[in-house]
Design a protein that fits this description.
The protein is an alpha+beta fold. The chain has helices at about 1-30, 45, 55-70, 75-85, 90-105, 140-145, 180-190, 205, and strands at about 115-120, 130-135, 150-155, 165-170, 175. It has eight helices and five strands. This is DUF502 domain-containing protein.
Length: about 210
């Protein structure tokens, strides 16, 4: 009985505490954007006390303002000029260009990156794992293969930010109906949290007992 109560209590408090810690870290990080505000204009100086979370609003306004600026002709020229300066710094150029391409791939409206959850046989035939489609190779990568392949990312559990990039023949891939969020949740939880099952696609003969 005590063990059951202990597990039930942990199932209530562990997700709650983890969520609060993540929110605390996120709010603390975004509140650093207030450092961009002159000291005399900060809440501590005007009101005499800090306002937790105000940095989130400021960060959102900064992102929206930057997006509005970058969407017009003058902003695009300004961004291009800034990128040309960064492109002259060896190490910075590599990091910036890599992160920008990744952001354009993941956040862009075009393409299929991280919009499809797949099942692939990995690390060997007969063993299946979750993967995410990140693109369709073109150029030399596709030309040197005898089959049409897709670029998939196989995440490690429970940390999906690391993993392996594998080129898999399209015919060896099973597409799933679950959302990317459900797929990531399954990886992070080590398979404990699984999305609702898809409709049973087996025939009535297959489901018949015996």
């Amino acid at each position: 009985m005590l063990r059951r109560w202990l597990i039930a209590g942990l199932l209530v408090w562990l997700p709650l505490v983890a969520t609060l810690l993540v929110l605390q870290l996120l709010v603390g990080f975004l509140d650093r954007s207030l450092l961009l505000v002159p000291p005399t204009w900060r809440p501590e100086a005007l009101l005499g006390f800090a306002i937790p979370g105000l940095g989130i609003l400021l960060s959102l306004l900064l992102v929206l303002g930057t997006g509005a600026l970058a969407a017009n002709l003058f902003g695009r020229r300004l961004v291009a000029w800034a990128e040309s300066l960064l492109g002259r710094v060896p190490f910075v150029r590599t990091v910036y260009s890599g992160v920008k391409r990744l952001a354009e791939t993941v956040l862009g409206d075009q393409g299929s990156s991280f919009r499809q959850v797949l099942m692939v046989e990995y690390p060997r035939r007969g063993m299946w794992t979750l993967a995410f489609q990140t693109g369709s190779p073109i150029g030399e990568v596709q030309a040197k293969t005898s089959q049409e392949v897709l670029t998939v990312f196989i995440p490690t559990a429970p940390n999906p930010t690391s993993g392996y990039v594998v080129l898999v023949p399209r015919e060896d891939i099973i597409e799933l109906e679950m959302s990317v969020e459900d797929g990531l949740r399954m990886v992070i939880s080590l398979g404990v949290v699984t999305p609702e099952s898809a409709p049973d696609l087996r025939t009535s003969d297959d489901r018949a007992p015996g």
